[in-house]
Design a protein that fits this description.
Blueprint (H helix, E strand, L loop, with lengths): L3 E2 L2 E4 L9 H15 L5 H4 L7 H11 L8 H18 L12 H10 L3 E4 L6 H7 L8 E2 L13 H9 L7 E5 L2 H9 L4 E4 L10 E3 L6 H8 L1 E2 L1
Parallel strand pairs: 1-8, 2-3, 2-5, 3-4, 5-6, 6-7
Length: about 220
């Protein structure tokens, strides 16, 4: 049986390339505190892979406060959180790239495999610049232009379409259940970075440190 050729790898950002989730948590916690809504690391897990406005809705629902704010007020709250987050991420540097990711990206480049970023974060281009990885990516999906956030497949399909490829020639890399679901809805095999419990359904579960081309080709039955 002929193997599918690997032509592109499409990455999530938070928890895969770098761990900026801490900064998201601190920014949301600050906003929730101002609103008098309880918010801790456990509830923060519900926000993984979810867009900014959806995250705000989850926080407001946790405080039974969703109906207390107009659409415009909610947008202002989301902007306030984002401004705080943007201040926090100014301290991100190449030292914050997760173990193994730099060498994996270089390996993909060396084998002419396209690299895309599929992050719901509108700050993704800025973070890539802070990490000095912006030149490594052939395409960065515009989160603002994607109609539906994960678990819908839109952002992964955007990466695939940018290269003119079919799903069987792409692989998605994620660290959240909603992301794994989005990859599968796009028709691609999924690589999950995390524990088997969290990454249930992914065709390959590994760590960033162990992530390499040979492992993907072997476990997903692909070739270059």
């Amino acid at each position: 049986m002929e193997k599918n050729k690997l032509k592109a790898v499409i990455f999530d950002l938070d928890g895969v390339i770098t761990d900026s989730a801490t900064y998201h948590y601190l920014a949301w916690k600050s906003l929730a505190g101002e609103l008098g809504i309880p918010f801790d690391e456990q509830y923060n897990e519900k926000l993984k892979g979810v867009s900014r406005m959806e995250s705000l809705e989850l926080i407001l629902q946790n405080g039974n406060a969703s109906s207390q704010y107009t659409k415009e007020q909610k947008e202002a709250l989301a902007d306030k959180k984002n401004n705080l987050y943007k201040e926090l991420i100014k301290q991100i540097s190449p030292a914050d790239i997760l173990p193994g990711i730099s060498s994996f990206l270089e390996e993909l480049k060396a084998n002419q495999i396209k690299i895309a970023l599929a992050s719901v974060s509108r700050n993704a281009p800025f973070i890539l610049g802070q990490l000095c990885l912006d030149t490594m990516f052939d395409y960065v999906a515009d989160a603002a232009a994607v109609p539906n956030a994960k678990p819908f497949p839109d952002i992964f399909l955007a990466g695939m379409s940018a290269f003119g490829l079919q799903p069987q020639n792409c692989v998605g890399v994620e660290d959240a259940r909603t992301g794994i679901e989005a990859i599968h809805r796009a028709g691609m095999p999924a690589v999950g970075v995390g524990t088997p419990e969290e990454m249930e359904g992914a065709e390959l579960v590994t760590t960033t440190q162990e992530l390499c081309l040979d492992l993907i080709l072997e476990r997903l039955g692909m070739e270059i």
